[in-house]
Hints:
Elements: H1 2-17, H2 41-45, E1 54-55, H3 58-67, E2 71-76, H4 81-91, H5 94-103, E3 105-110, H6 115-127, E4 136-140, E5 146-150, H7 155-171, H8 173-187, H9 191-194, H10 209-217, H11 236-249, H12 252-267, E6 281-282, E7 290-291, E8 294-295, H13 296-313, H14 316-332, E9 343-344, E10 347-348, E11 351-352, E12 358-359, H15 360-367, H16 371-377, E13 390-391, H17 399-405, H18 410-428, E14 436-437, E15 440-441, H19 442-459, H20 462-478, E16 480-481, E17 484-490, E18 493-497, H21 500-517, H22 520-536, E19 538-539, E20 544-545, H23 570-584, H24 588-608, H25 613-623, E21 627-632, H26 636-643, E22 651-656, E23 676-681, E24 684-685, H27 692-698
Parallel strand pairs: 1-3, 2-3, 21-22
Antiparallel strand pairs: 2-4, 4-5, 6-7, 8-9, 9-14, 10-11, 12-13, 15-17, 16-17, 17-18, 19-20, 21-23, 23-24
Amino acid sequence: MIKYIQLLLVCSLLACSSNSSKKENTTMPEGANHLIHSTSPYLLQHAYNPVQWYPWGEEALAKAKKEDKPILVSIGYSACHWCHVMEKESFENDSIADLMNKHFVCIKVDREERPDIDQIYMDALQAMGQNGGWPLNVFLTADQKPFYGGTYFPPQGWAQALSQIAKVYETKRNEVEASANELTEAIATSETIKYQLASDHSDITVASLDSMFRKLSTRFDREKGGFNQPPKFPMPSNWLFLLRYYHLTKDPLALSQIELTLNEIANGGIYDQVGGGFARYSVDANWLIPHFEKMLYDNGQLLSLYSEAYTLTQKRLYKNVVYHTIAWLEREMTNEEGGFYSALDADSEGEEGKFYVWTNEELEVLLNDNAPLIKAYYNASEQGNWEEGKNILHKKLDDSIFAENHKITTEELQRIVNEANEVLLKEREKRERPGLDDKILSGWNALTVKGLVDAYNAFGEERFLNIAIKNADFITEKMMDGDKLYRNYKNGKASIDGYLEDYAFAIDAFAALYQATFDERWLKKAKELTDYTLEHFFDKEENLFFYTDNSSQKLIARKKEIFDNVIPSSNSQMAINLYVLGTIYDKNEYKNISTAMLSKVKSLLSTDIGYLSNWGCLYTYMATPTAEIAIVGENALAKRSEFVQRYIPNKVMMGASSDSNLPLMEGKTTAAGKTTIYVCYNKTCKLPVHEVKKAFDQLQKP
């Protein structure tokens, strides 16, 4: 039946195209639609479209039922280039808007505010046999059941689609509703059934990680790093998994691919060489041409990745990237309260990337005598390396090699480059800036807190920790009500119930903050949020978590997020959280749930590790004993800072200046009046020592 309706609509559209090449405030300014009272910058971008858009909510859904009209849900986000294109071409077109208003109740959704809605209707589109993407345009019956959808439509095709869908809905209503029911049943199917997830209780061993690595390695681009097909996304969790795999196995291929990838990304156009921070992805295989939007969630995770990689390799490039990116975060992405904004648009002045690219003439005028050297360093030329004489600044050589080729020291090169970057950054600030998505999302902020803590661990820079603490305070004070977390913050107000990803990343961030500061308030917050998720999100029958709170608005399906993507899945992160907190609190209930969750995906790890890499990280923790490091005494934090300078991913850190009620801290006191370190495995401790070097010697070798 689904295929019948799809065929009916597609045939109709082809026939047409062959003939030619909570309730919102109802007070609205003149010319505005119902989005005018939204907090989402993406929705506000559409607030003066002639389309009578509504936000998702009871008003729009009730209107569809009352008027017996189908619903058009159009989903996107503020930094989405093709979303902007479709708005300009179609949603600002009066005649097309008339068609939309006449036949449909039109709802706009910001996928970053409402990923629960996006998940459902993206699944529906894929169940129709189409590729996903944004803008996502899906047509629903009045009771929210999908029956047709697509992504970007050019204006003529969109107008034809609207007319044909309206006609089919009117004349073939029974078939449409039957198709919608079938689709809804398909997308409401449990992920456990859909992906045939069955508990696998086989042993967790280091040797079994080899098959995961071999599978992942078949996709390596061994010349330019990353994986072998553009577009190329950084995919931080894949490389974090490989860092852990290398730590356990010392496989040189794993390390070489990690370094190749991180070097190429850091030297490429996907990295903002002048201002710091990473674009969302590269459209080419060489990491040269970015899709220029910058997302907070990428940059937060990449802080973690480059910091961990530095701890292992001590590469100066990685340190520079972290410091530069945090400078961008402070300069462009932080509000006065310490919250982090969501994204920067790819476009400015109607052109993608205009804010970031340079002409040869601009570089000559701005850099004077240093222009030849900087142009060579960043591979800029008169003809340009992108389009119409424009240059995307990028590097091809390591600084030491470039400096040697130009007969200067590496230090002198760095001085000249830093001065040039300051000049270019100052000039760039005079340009019209890309649009800023200034909503604050708790989960994305938490990812960035974790990145800042990892940077603090790697470099000991107190400023990084202070930024992290200020943001964590912001989350707890502005985005929480007791143990309940909210998704969104804008204009002094938190709104939208938090999703599992928000809780999962906040728990991870707070647990990391405890291990960086030994301030137990963060650990208590992490446990409170964990207990809330177990009560309101956990499915005891399937040993997995739902994506939505059981007290939140009900949709046509309640999904579970299993697979890791650009952002790790909320279930994999919760499984890691339960393992870490279960270890720190000596709470078997947590650890048993974590083990049961991993067992559900274990059979997929050897075949789909590229989309389960955060689960793979958990597997590495369980494959060997986790070190329990407890430090007691006045200098506990100083010893902790020294301890984290070496790459040891499979550990938990606990500490106190005197006493602590944590189970694994009981009975641990200073010896001989000195700050004392205890290295333990499964609650069994080695002899207490006072020197970090001796504690390292007590660690079990992988």
